[in-house]
Automatic annotation (TrEMBL):
Top EC category: transferase
UniProt keyword annotations, A-Z: Amino-acid biosynthesis, Cysteine biosynthesis, Pyridoxal phosphate, Transferase
Organism: Dokdonia ponticola
Name the record gives this protein: cysteine synthase
Cofactor or coenzyme needed: pyridoxal 5'-phosphate
UniProt family annotation: Belongs to the cysteine synthase/cystathionine beta-synthase family.
Keyword tRNA processing set for record: no
InterPro entries reported for this sequence: Cys_synth, Cys_Synth/Cystath_Beta-Synth, P-phosphate_BS, TrpB-like_PALP, TrpB-like_PALP_sf
Gene that this polypeptide is encoded by: cysM
GO molecular-function term, one example from the UniProt record: cysteine synthase activity
Length: 292
């Protein structure tokens, strides 16, 4: 048996929509990334980034690590760092939920809250790297981010749908999930449609961003995404609540956003098999307005 916590990253369940999808000719599946040990899809990228940096000799147990994060990547990095006895500082927007901050601290990470959102957190981390000798994984430009999904998420979806998936839907933050999964699925069948989810203007949805050009993740390649659809904060909130009440899936707001788009796509199709990413678990949002 000799399985470690790291061996439990990935191979997450793919479950069929029981209620929300009302098109009888379309199957909608949710990939439950909250079943990763750290509670989100970011476990995959965090492990791949840390393990490869260690293997390349870029970091050691003496390294001062820092990363800007909106939440889930930070939790995942804190968990993996604890396993390898690494010291890490995580910088988040000060609007982050209490559960996220406490979870990172529980794993032993130092948490810094920044008043200027994720962009301010990114600038803060870059300054520490350039002036104080810190090492940042920089998930926004780290090839090991998207390659984690090329190695794991994409193949899992292909195998679990017996190669019949027609549409893949993912909210876009760092864009690692959609880049890696798209790269793999398009190699298998270029006709598979890859649909990204962004917030509407002035909508703030944790985990989904419409980046200003100067902050656009370097790993993002627009040619790998067939369509980008937008969701409002209110749509994402309402769908997160419906996921819990109608499907028994407790998930965060970004998953509500992705599900909103998945249902739009389902209504467009005469037939198809849609896979939508459920990014994380909803219990890390219980102190927020999400489920009030």
């Amino acid at each position: 048996m000799n399985k470690t916590i790291i061996d439990r990253i990935g191979n997450t369940p793919l479950v069929k929509s029981l209620a929300l999808n009302v098109n009888p000719n379309v199957s909608l599946y949710f990939k439950l990334e909250g079943n990763n040990p750290g509670g989100s899809v970011k476990d995959r990228a965090a492990y791949n980034m840390i393990r490869n940096a260690l293997d390349r000799g870029e970091i050691t147990q003496d390294s001062k690590l820092i990363e800007a994060t909106s939440g889930n990547t930070g939790i995942a990095l804190a968990m993996i760092a604890s396993i390898y006895n690494l010291n890490i500082e995580l910088v988040m927007p000060e609007t982050a939920t209490k559960e996220r901050v406490q979870t990172m601290k529980a794993y032993g990470a130092k948490v810094t809250l920044h008043p200027e959102g994720i962009e301010g957190a990114r600038d803060y981390a870059i300054n520490k790297v350039e002036n104080e000798g810190y090492y940042s994984f920089n998930q926004f430009s780290n090839e090991d981010n998207w390659k984690a999904h090329y190695k794991t998420t994409g193949p899992e979806i292909w195998e679990d749908t017996n190669g019949k998936v027609t549409h893949f839907i993912s909210s876009m933050g760092t864009t690692g999930t959609i880049m890696g999964t798209s790269t793999f699925l398009k190699e298998k069948n270029n006709a598979i449609q890859i649909i990204g989810v962004q917030p509407t203007d002035n909508s703030k949805i944790p985990g989904i961003r419409k980046w200003p050009q100067e902050y656009l993740p370097a790993i993002f390649n627009p040619s790998k995404v067939d369509r980008i659809l937008e969701v409002s904060r209110e749509e994402a909130i309402q769908m997160s609540r419906r996921l819990a009440r109608e499907e028994g899936i407790l998930a965060g707001m970004s998953s509500g956003g992705a599900t909103t788009v998945a249902l739009r796509i389902a209504q467009e199709l005469s037939e198809g098999i849609i896979v939508s990413i459920i990014c994380d678990r909803g219990d890390r949002y219980l102190s927020s307005e999400l489920f009030e």
